[in-house]
Write a structure and sequence with these properties.
Elements (H helix, E strand, L loop, with lengths): L1 H34 L2 E2 L2 E2 L2 H8 L1 H32 L4 H14 L5 H11 L4 H8 L11 H20 L8 H9 L4 H29 L3 H7 L6 H10 L6 H33 L1
Antiparallel strand pairs: 1-2
Helix pairs in contact: 1-12, 2-12, 3-7, 3-9, 4-7, 5-10, 7-9, 8-9, 9-12, 11-12
Length: about 280
């Protein structure tokens, strides 16, 4: 009885969090889910049928997944190398890089789009320098390849911030013990390093995917809403002057939620499989 009474203060402290979580997470999701099923004055799956039968909306899904996947892959590879390198350098340099990563991880939206236009636009400083050096013939920042480069930029600092603490799990005596037993660098990373880091790597990759799939402001201001990705299409259906259809936007948003749910399920399955393999 006394133990139950002691838990009440802690439960009461969770009430404000629960209220805010329901108001800003659960309630909007329920509202979007309900509106995605409304067509005119009736309930129907016609909005979802329209999405999956339209090449235009399927193209937006394809572009979003491609940009998110490749930018997350490039971002996490560079973040792994950067995080591992930070463990080997002086503490002052490490603190500076971590502070810089923290700052650049929030550098997005209009300022980031403007910076990339100046650097890598058709007449950008780096574009002209690379052309004069003969390293590139043509680079289109406003294409899918250009957006992958742009997305990779803001994926790297986030990946470093998420992966850097994970390398604390690798103890130096493990490497020394492996070397004493005759293991080389590849053997250490294959049998010890990667299995230990796998949960952090998978979790970081999923977060980077979610970050890229939901990015809106940067790609909108860079392309003025002319590139076909899911966030742009959702915004156009909600606030567009030509094709205003909030219910269809809700259905497209639920498709985005479904993609993230599928990615999360796959992530959890891979985690369980990695844990069984480690055992």
């Amino acid at each position: 009885m006394r133990a139950a009474l002691r838990k009440w203060p802690a439960l009461l402290c969770l009430v404000p969090f629960a209220v805010f979580f329901f108001a800003f997470q659960i309630a909007p999701l329920l509202w979007v889910a309900i509106n995605s099923l409304i067509v005119g004055d009736s309930w129907s799956l016609a909005n979802f049928a329209k999405i999956f039968s339209s090449k235009f909306y399927l193209q937006s899904i394809k572009h979003s997944l491609q940009i998110a996947f490749w930018s997350s892959l490039f971002g996490i590879v560079i973040a792994i190398l950067g995080s591992y390198s930070l463990r080997q350098v002086d503490s002052k340099l490490r603190d500076f890089v971590m502070a810089f990563s923290n700052m650049t991880s929030n550098f997005a939206g209009v300022p980031l789009a403007f910076a990339f236009i100046i650097l890598l636009g058709f007449n950008g400083a780096l574009t002209l320098m690379l052309k004069q050096a003969g390293l590139i013939e043509d680079f289109n920042l406003y294409s899918k390849t250009g957006l992958i480069v742009l997305y990779t930029y803001f994926q790297i600092p986030l990946g470093v911030l998420l992966l850097y603490p994970a390398f604390d799990a690798l103890r130096q005596d493990w490497r020394e013990s492996a070397q004493l037993l005759g293991a080389n660098t590849w053997d250490f990373w294959r049998h010890i390093g990667l299995p230990v880091l796998t949960p952090a790597l998978l979790g970081t990759f999923v977060i980077l995917l979610a970050n890229a799939l939901g990015a809106y402001a940067t790609v909108y201001y860079l392309t003025t809403g002319n590139f076909n990705v899911m966030p742009i299409r959702i915004a156009g259906l909600v606030a567009g002057d030509i094709s205003l259809d909030p219910n269809l936007a809700s259905a497209l948003a639920m498709v985005l939620v479904g993609l993230m749910a599928l990615i999360t399920v796959v992530h959890q399955w891979l985690l369980r499989r990695s844990h069984r393999h480690a055992r």
